[in-house]
Design brief:
The protein has two helices and no strands. By secondary structure, the chain is mainly α. It is rod-shaped. This is Tumor necrosis factor receptor superfamily member 19.
Length: about 55
């Protein structure tokens, strides 16, 4: 009876340790974003939106 309990606790602790390690590694990963290509169809001037509404 106690053997099953000990094995169960060991499994739970192993899963918890792996989950913590995985989460820690995920938070330390440095994400990067590719720069946008120059697209003539995209308006980047904030005033152009206001002028279209008038």
């Amino acid at each position: 009876m106690y053997a099953v309990l000990v094995v169960s606790v060991i499994i739970v602790l192993a899963v918890l340790l792996l989950a913590v390690l995985t989460t820690s590694k995920a938070y330390t990963y440095k994400h990067t974003v590719d720069p946008l290509d120059e697209n003539p169809n995209i308006k980047t001037d904030s005033n152009s939106i206001d002028q279209e509404k008038k």
